[in-house]
Amino acid sequence: MSEASYRGSCQCQAVVFDATLDLDHTITCNCSRCQRLGSVLSFAPADKFHLQKGADALTEYRFNTKKIGHQFCKICGIEPFAYGETPDGAPTVAVNVNCLDGVDPRALKSAHYDGRSR
Ligand SMILES: [Zn+2]
């Protein structure tokens, strides 16, 4: 498989986005946040992510190293994506695959990331 375009949203649809993603490369993570959320993540360069609506509905949360800006809807509480950077400093978006239309995240073979030990 290769890249395809997906639409995603929070639960209440206040936040809607589209992104070009390669769902052959997703991760799950056991850090203190991802484990609680059950996040399945796919990473895209910032220019392949477009927030269609909901900038005013989002609020940001940062923890630990504070490098990742977790975005969640202040109406329904869902975190559809997070802003971050690649190790070489390029802006990237971590999309929560659970929020994409027409995708079964449990059917993906996600790599496991040991965020708890970092
Ligand atoms: Zn919402």
From TrEMBL:
Keywords tagged on the record: Metal-binding, Zinc
Q: Residues in domain CENP-V/GFA?
A: 6-114
Stored Pfam families: GFA (PF04828)
InterPro entries in alphabetical order: CENP-V-like (IPR052355), CENP-V/GFA (IPR006913), Mss4-like_sf (IPR011057)
Instruction: Tell me the domain of life.
Output: Bacteria
SUPFAM superfamilies xrefs: Mss4-like
**Similarity section:** Belongs to the Gfa family.
Q: What is this protein called?
A: Aldehyde-activating protein
Name its species: Methylocystis iwaonis
